[in-house]
Amino acid sequence: MSEKQSPSEGSDQQNNQPILPQSTGEQNSQPASNMGGINSNEVMRGVAERITNAAGVEQLEGFSLKDMFSEVFKKHSENEVEEYFTVGTALTTPPIEEVDSSWPKPWVFFKTFLGAVAVYVGFVIAWREFQNPNLIPGLIIVGSFAIPFSTLIFFFEANVRKNVSLYQVIRLLFLGGILSLIFSLILFQVSSTLSLNWLGASVAGIAEEPGKLLALMLVINNPRYKYTLNGLLFGAAIGTGFAAFESAGYALLAGLLSSNPDAMLNVILLRGILAPFGHIVWTGMSAAVLWKIKGTQKFRFSMVQDPRFVRVFGISVVLHMLWNSPIEIPFLGKQIALGFVAWVVIFALIQDGLKQLRHEKLAVLSVNDAARI
To answer: Phi and psi dihedrals of 229, rounded to 5?
Structure first.
């Protein structure tokens, strides 16, 4: 939003695979990517540990990307998709005893992505063929929402407690999205009065991250939503709305101001590719930690002074500021590296949210067992 910005439960113990493969000394049958005695897997594992330590979150355990996304390319019926979204109401929220608190295996997000991309490609083909300006609104809206919304569906699937309805998610996406934009614009004005313009486009991290969190007032005191994974989903929803609305604005400007007819499409494509690494995860991680601290309590300002929140929120602000900084690495290296940091924190928070559900589930089961005796 700154004036100059980069385009920017089966069994709970199953699948306890490490985040990264073991070194070749432990798995002699597996080829190693080893240059000069340095194993790249060990390096990545070390980097992930440093990130989680800096964020004050747990190190990843029993996590495997391959296992987590193992359902993506399997065949699923339309009925399965519909059932996936029929959750979150008083009648469709499962009791805690029935909640699968093992690592989720999301797949609907990918079907959503393919469908959205198909619609967008249809708009692009029609635009190139007919050059009809009536196609532009649809082109911009679908293009700007396709990947952000698909990413949001991932977080909807990660909320394995299934206590949040799709209605609430859509409400936060749109209402939270516009509120976060308004709050951010106000904070931009405040930053100008504080003479922070010397930060350039990086000032967006200071204005937009608090602006998006302020929109959480829409749900923060709802007693139904007390879980870390709820906060993660709500933050992602607001981040999705913010990112999509912002991208639509940049795409429109590109179309109006550039003599290159493909400028608008280039902006939509680039910002779509980068969307899963930016606003959605930055706001998601901050909201998740806030919900972890809040739990069943009413929100108090002292909660944002909790060191756990300060560390993660600080990371989101720094990531945003670096994203908008003039530092560049070829082939979108900067954005990919910053996205890696954010997603390590996100996966660690998902792990923490799963443990929260597991503890509650065990407590309820213990009470039920005692009542039968």
So the answer is: -65, -25
Does a structural domain hold residue 98?
yes
pLDDT in tens, 326-366: 999 999 999 999 999 999 999 999 999 999 999 999 999 98
- Domain span at residue 272 reads 64-372
The contacts of residue 41 (CB under 8 Å, 6+ apart) are 20, 21, 22, 23, 32, 33
For residue 62 the two structure tokens come to 């029993």
CB 105 within 8 A of CB 67: yes
Cβ proximity of 237 and 176 under 8 Å:
yes
Residues 339, 281: contact at Cβ < 8 Å? yes
Question: Tokens 């709500």 belong to which residue?
Answer: 234
pLDDT (tens digit, 9 = 90+) per residue, 146-197? Answer: 999 999 999 999 999 999 999 999 999 999 999 999 999 999 999 999 999 8
Note whether 176 and 216 are within 8 A (CB).
yes
- CB of 42 closer than 8 Å to CB of 16: no
Instruction: Report if residue 231 sits inside a domain.
Output: yes
Q: What are phi and psi of 38, to 5 degrees?
A: -105, 115
Give the model confidence (pLDDT) of 24-68 as tens digits. Answer: 344 444 444 454 556 777 888 889 999 999 999 999 988 889 999
- Cα–Cα dist 307/310, whole Å: 5
When divided into structural domains, the chain yields a total of 1
**Structural domain includes residue 24:** no
**Cα-based angle 273, 144, 130 (whole degrees, multiple of 5):** 105
Rg from Cα positions in the chain = 21
For residue 53, tell me if it sits in a domain. no
Q: Which amino acid is at 122?
A: G
